[in-house]
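Re: that backbone. Tokens:
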């Protein structure tokens, strides 16, 4: 196994660990509306909104901060499966890509790129997957095409 593949494996394993950790975190935190810390952050953000501050001063506030936090966190809970599913898909593509790395490096690089697209809402794992994918897609000669002498 060459050094390039070892470096790609190292980067990919770190990326996979971050993806699995993020998925586990999202699965373990449970419903967001039951966490007082998250609820208070949403309320603080709502109260810092300039329009809400103007409406509060004029007495025309249409939704109270506590009700806003409840509605927002309930809405987020309904769609929590989307980021969890994307992280699981990205982790699965990374695992498959690691298994086929030595057999088909171009396919492995493409799978790394798809994994990066699936987890694009995170920051570090997609960067690592794009690096791995681009290194594999460049090929052995660094992306340069060699001109072959024509035989006569």
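Recovered sequence:
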């Amino acid at each position: 196994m060459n050094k390039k593949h070892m470096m790609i494996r190292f980067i990919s394993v770190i990326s996979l660990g971050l993806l699995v950790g993020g998925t586990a975190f999202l699965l373990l935190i449970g419903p967001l509306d039951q966490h007082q810390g998250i609820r208070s952050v949403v309320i603080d953000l709502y109260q810092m909104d300039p329009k809400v501050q103007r409406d509060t001063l004029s007495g025309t506030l249409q939704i109270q901060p506590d009700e806003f936090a409840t509605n927002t966190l309930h809405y987020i809970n309904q769609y929590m499966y989307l980021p969890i599913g994307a992280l699981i898909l990205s982790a699965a593509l990374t695992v498959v890509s690691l298994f086929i790395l030595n057999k088909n490096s171009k396919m492995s690089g493409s799978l790394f790129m798809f994994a990066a697209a699936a987890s694009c809402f995170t920051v570090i794992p997609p960067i690592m997957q794009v690096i791995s994918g681009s290194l594999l897609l460049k090929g052995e000669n660094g992306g340069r095409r060699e001109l072959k002498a024509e035989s006569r």
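The two ends are 37 Å apart (CA to CA). Residues 3-138 form one domain.
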